[in-house]
Amino acid sequence: MTELDSTHRPGFGEALRYWARLGFVNFGGPAGQIAMMHRDLVEDRKWISEERFLHALNFCMLLPGPEAQQLAIYVGWLFDGTRGGVLAGVLFVLPSVLLLLVLSWVYAAHGSVPAVGGILTGLKPVVVAIVVAAVWRIGRRALRSRADAAIAVAAFLAIRFANVPFPWIVLAAALVGLAVPRSPSSSGHDRPLARSLASGDSVRDAAATGRVPTARRLFRIASVGLLLWAGPFLALVIVRGWASLHVAEYRFFTQAAFVTFGGAYAVLAYVTQAAAGPFGWITRSQAIDGLALAETTPGPLIMVLQFVGFLAAWQRPQGMSPLASGIIGGLATTWATFLPGFLFVLAWAPFIEALRGNRKLSAALAGITAAIVGVIANLAFVFGEAVLFPRGLSGGLDFFSLFVGAAALAALVWRRLDLLWIIGSGLAAGLLRVLLG
Description:
The protein is mainly α.
């Protein structure tokens, strides 16, 4: 009996109702979302075995993109094939897409209102604390040797002082990871809930579902994916023109989707480096505001890129109304960001057994993960400088932000309070500061 046979398989409608509900309650970032799905799918509903869940998660951890959403796509595919995977992935992010569009409009149109400004004043230092906590959490897990620490430091120096593009850092880290000798225990790309499994049941499960990997299936999915990407791109080129901001956003965020190893914080570092740098689309302060808004919504944190796309297009409407331009920019960004993740999972899930246990691949990914620690550390410095010294280093320290950020960091790292409570406390502190003048 296979792992799938030994659990209660939900009907299509039953699974669909679960994915729809999950989209509205999946707060807490990737760790919280994965834990929520594990509790629901494995412990409570018993729709999938512990081994199969970890097997799927281990595969999703190898991919660029939001791992929690990709895990939902994988499990949906496992239950109901391609339509199940597509619906699970769409419902996982759809509520956050709509909600963040509204919040982005409120920010762009009414961000100067004192109450809105106060909310953001309280949320910004909380965001800095969240990023610092992410450096601590990922660093403890990823830096298993002196070589890993050296890669992290080199990545930090490269992106902070040499302004090396993020994709080149990822490539260099992968090559160094391959070259550095590692023991079997230190070369694994494991994370909480993601340990290498070696069960013949996985192969039997693939056969039992009838989804055996074939070159024909891979070609078909790749062809459909190319059409789904090219259709909106050609429409934007025809309607807005090749030199338009919307076309530039579509190209840039497609590229970003292929280098998002390390999750939202790593890709935000890459996007901030370009969008607030050479492109001049947004400011660093606005990037922090976007992450603060994304933290308050369900769905993957990488949704912050929709805010970036919306705000950049709002500020440069190029003949359109700011709202129409912003909506097109936000939705184009979201489509370009999430489409590759669907294709990665649906195309390669049947080949998961060939990927699992590959030591060379694990070594390369270990190098990438170490570099990501340095990249996120740089993001913490960038955000911290903008929040704690809003008028520049010569303008003095903002003690309110320092106090709120330190309290949030203590609550996250030492008290391990629920993220929603911490965000709500920061919001309340910002409003109280405005009311007290």
